[in-house]
């Protein structure tokens, strides 16, 4: 309701705020990081919950499996799918087969694939020192001369210090 009201007066500002917030989240939590965290969490749930472990594991992985199915929208996401998509999809299919009454041996195949991806992602994340905005959020790279204030600079009694543009490279802080 509030956003709707704001749109009637400052539609461009609202659209810019939505774009920037959505894209900053995309940049802050890349698919590799999401999958690494989810696989670690799924591993813990699988082994902690015993009989319910597969359901717990799948509940963690399902939202990311849906992202894979929906498809990549940036070069970074396409690169992730090219590197890990086959292993992840194969493991997820083994999970579905197990859930439909498959044998326990399927879970061995699941964790062989998932663990391989987890190890590779761990190394990759440690080695990442910077990101090129064109690969992780071309939308932010194209955004320029925004009405949106630079965070932390807005004061009602002063002129707005607006975002001019975003830099091409983002430094990763581990």
TrEMBL record:
<dbReference type="Pfam" id="PF08771">
    <property type="entry name" value="FRB_dom"/>
</dbReference>
<dbReference type="GO" id="GO:0044877">
    <property type="term" value="F:protein-containing complex binding"/>
</dbReference>
<dbReference type="InterPro" id="IPR036738">
    <property type="entry name" value="FRB_sf"/>
</dbReference>
<dbReference type="InterPro" id="IPR009076">
    <property type="entry name" value="FRB_dom"/>
</dbReference>
<feature type="domain" description="FKBP12-rapamycin binding">
    <location>
        <begin position="23"/>
        <end position="121"/>
    </location>
</feature>
<protein>
    <recommendedName>
        <fullName>FKBP12-rapamycin binding domain-containing protein</fullName>
    </recommendedName>
</protein>
């Amino acid at each position: 309701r509030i956003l709707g009201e704001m749109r009637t007066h400052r539609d461009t500002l609202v659209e810019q705020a939505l774009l920037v917030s959505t894209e900053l989240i995309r940049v802050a939590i890349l698919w590799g990081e999401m999958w690494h965290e989810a696989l670690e969490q799924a591993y813990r749930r699988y082994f902690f919950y015993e009989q319910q472990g597969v359901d717990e594991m799948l509940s963690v992985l399902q939202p990311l499996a849906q992202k894979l199915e929906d498809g990549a929208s940036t070069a970074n996401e396409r690169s992730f799918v090219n590197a890990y998509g086959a292993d992840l999809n194969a493991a997820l299919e083994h999970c579905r087969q197990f859930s439909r009454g498959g044998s326990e041996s399927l879970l061995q195949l699941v964790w062989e694939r998932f663990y391989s991806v987890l190890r590779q992602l761990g190394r990759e994340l440690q080695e990442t020192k910077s990101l090129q905005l064109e690969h992780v959020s071309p939308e932010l790279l194209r955004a320029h001369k925004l009405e949106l204030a630079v965070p932390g600079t807005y004061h009602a009694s002063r002129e707005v210090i607006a975002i001019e543009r975003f830099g091409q490279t983002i430094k990763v802080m581990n």
